[in-house]
């Protein structure tokens, strides 16, 4: 992505970048922004770049990347997101900044309160656009972009291109260059996938056994419900596995603390929901576990993509109960995977398996019709010449 996107961005062309997480997108859009800032930099900082992201975790991750890349530059940046007081953000904005990294909701609050002016922005990046659309932020993005001056370059990065992405691009981008870097399927195939069959009521017990018996040093565990995350953490800690969770109902400070402890390996397990996990980047994460299957195939690729990043090895384990057999098959078909199923000793499944589809027995009437049809097909057919002779005779 960096090799393809940076030269185009430096030419000030609009970009639609299609790439999975972990492909170096942050560097691809930050390097051109910093290059432009160096050229235009005055003594006072003026807001030149806006980066829109779906989650506060991703906002903080990008701000950290800016700090790394601009270590020897006089660049001022601010992260704007909810869950914390906006006063400190207002103060930084008032003192002048070069780059704003923001979630859409809090940015709209600042626009409403006239604490930010986007008219001087010349570079706009919308990162993880597909996630933003999944979270229902399309309308907010459409409200923000008109506040930016016409002389701007816009780069949109998404894991997939759908009709909504195309609509947004058509509305706000000018003759964009489309850059596609590998299919998500390519990355998913490089991960070591495992499926462990288990009854639904044995999943919690199996999770602890699995992490302990396989000696998994770090595991990012995905669930679909907040209450399920809380319950799992309680059970894991009771089993002697240090765990915490992040989801929408947990305060930002607590989420940040849990993520920091997990990265520093003070926690062995981090349980999270899909939305809270977007933007999480953990170096050399060895294992992702799907405690429950996600709602969509795209979410599955986002989940397993947390491991095996930047060329490292990684394992994705799915705990599969009977109710999810069908959807798991759909995921495998779409991603062209064939993952072997296994059962662990002591956790053999007892749930009733779905019966293979049996052909519907034919009625007596159908059997008679079929028999007549076969008899007709078995009769010798007249040759073409015979048919012609008959016609001639009739004439």
UniProtKB/TrEMBL annotation:
Give the protein's recorded name: DEAD/DEAH box helicase
Q: Which residues form the Helicase ATP-binding domain?
A: 6-179
Which portions of the sequence form the region Disordered?
A: 346-395
Q: Does the keyword Nucleotide-binding apply?
A: yes
Which residue ranges have biased composition labelled Basic and acidic residues?
363-381
Superkingdom is: Bacteria
- Keywords (A to Z) from UniProt: ATP-binding, Helicase, Hydrolase, Nucleotide-binding
Biased composition annotated in UniProt, kind: Basic residues: 352-362, 382-395
Gene Ontology molecular functions = helicase activity
PROSITE patterns found in the cross-reference section: HELICASE_ATP_BIND_1 (PS51192), HELICASE_CTER (PS51194)
Has UniProt tagged this entry with the keyword Protein transport?
Answer: no
- State the Pfam families in the record: DEAD, Helicase_C
PANTHER family in alphabetical order: ATP-DEPENDENT RNA HELICASE RHLE (PTHR47959:SF13), ATP-DEPENDENT RNA HELICASE RHLE-RELATED (PTHR47959)
**What is stated as this protein's family in its record?**
Belongs to the DEAD box helicase family.
Domain (Helicase C-terminal): residue spans on this chain: 190-355
Q: Could you tell me which InterPro entries the record lists for this protein?
A: DEAD/DEAH_box_helicase_dom, DEAD/DEAH_RhlB, DEAD_box_RNA_helicase, Helicase_ATP-bd, Helicase_C-like, P-loop_NTPase
